[in-house]
Amino acid sequence: MKTSKNIYIRTSTKRILTKNLFSLFALLLTTSLLTTSCNPTDDANDGLQNEEPPTAQEFKNNRDIALNNHTQLFNFNTGDGYISLTSENGVQINLNANCLTDNGNPVSGDITLEYVEIFEKGSMLTTNKPTMGKLPNGDKALIITGGEFFIEATQNGTILDTNCGLQLMIPTSLTGGADPDMSLWTGEIDADGNLVWDEIEDNTNGDGGLFLEGENYYGILDGFGWTNVDKFYNDPRPKTTLQVEAPGGYDNQNSAIYLSYDGELPALAQLDTYDDTLNIFSEHYGQIPIGLDCHVIFISEADGEWRYAIKPVTIVANEIITFYLGETTVGTEASLTALINDLP
């Protein structure tokens, strides 16, 4: 009896210990599963935890290369007088070489003219030349473009001015057709390196510098720099402010967020304000239509190429959209440009 009793006690203790160990294992397993299921970034960032974000200069280098890839160069002599140059897409640049000056002084000799033309949103994105126009109160809103243009004349590296202006003739076939509501805008690069567009309200001719004749726009420019043929996007729906969170380590110095409106091909909005405490990009002005179908685009740099992610979104009020690093793809400028141009 004594021996049997001792055996029974040891057997009971073993059962109790086994049961407790099984319960502890089940608890740990359940906790692990719950922790994993509650963290949406685990799968999204799988394999990229040690990925180093690029520097601001590396990201800028990508944009500079893209802009250089869109730059055309023309050479002429001041002795050529009134000249007409034709771009790769058929835009005509008309100017009087005798009007070129350096600090107000006439110049003579060989001149280089640098020219950029952008008609598609993929090129607007890689070169960081979105279509954001300044409203009368200083806020910014999307504008629909009929082409973005940059013109600069130099001699031996010195940037020149003109004292009699120049003219652009832009075929409407490049802009989706003639639109009498288009006007002329000038662009300025702000302190953050972003291009902001201002509408030319009037000029000496009273036409804002742009008129439509037949199948061409004619832009009368006072001088060199960035010029745009544009009009404000108009949507009667209620508006909201869109906020987007970038992956950790990515901010407004080494990445950017853009917004492509479905059905509006020649336009690209930018979320140009940034909260470094919350890591939130925003357009800040509350100009995004509620119910808008669009694509939100995150871009950055990775080993000399582009890191990007594109999300289809229908805008709801006060929404915050989050990008995870694991959702991104790395590709060439050409592949990124093609993807953006193919958006609806």
CATH fold topology of the largest domain: Chondroitinase Ac, Chain A, domain 3
Number of self-contained structural domains: 2
Summarize the biggest pleated sheet. 8 strands, antiparallel
Tally of helical segments: 5
| Portion in beta strands | 35-45%
Rg is 29 Å
Instruction: Report helical residue fraction.
Output: 10-25%
Name of the CATH architecture of the largest domain: Sandwich
Class of the largest domain in CATH? Mainly Beta
Structural class per helix/strand content? alpha+beta
Query: Spans of 5+ residues with little confidence (pLDDT < 50)?
Result: 1-43
| Average pLDDT level | 87
- Overall number of strands: 27
State the end-to-end distance. 87 Å
Please state the overall shape, judged from the principal axes of the Cα atoms.
globular
Protein name: Lipocalin-like domain-containing protein
Signal peptide: 1-35
Keywords: Signal
Describe the structure in your own words.
Helices cover 20% and strands 40% of the residues. The chain has 344 residues and is an alpha+beta fold. The protein has two domains: 57-232, Sandwich (Chondroitinase Ac, Chain A, domain 3); 235-341, Immunoglobulin-like (Sandwich). Strands 1, 6, 7, 8, 9, 12, 13 and 16 form an eight-stranded antiparallel sheet that branches. A five-stranded antiparallel sheet has the order 2-3-11-15-14, with no helix packed on it. A five-stranded antiparallel sheet has the order 20-19-24-25-27. The longest helix has 36 residues, at 2-37. The model is unreliable at 1-43 (pLDDT under 50). It comes from Winogradskyella thalassocola. Residues 1-35 form the signal peptide. This is Lipocalin-like domain-containing protein. Keywords: Signal.
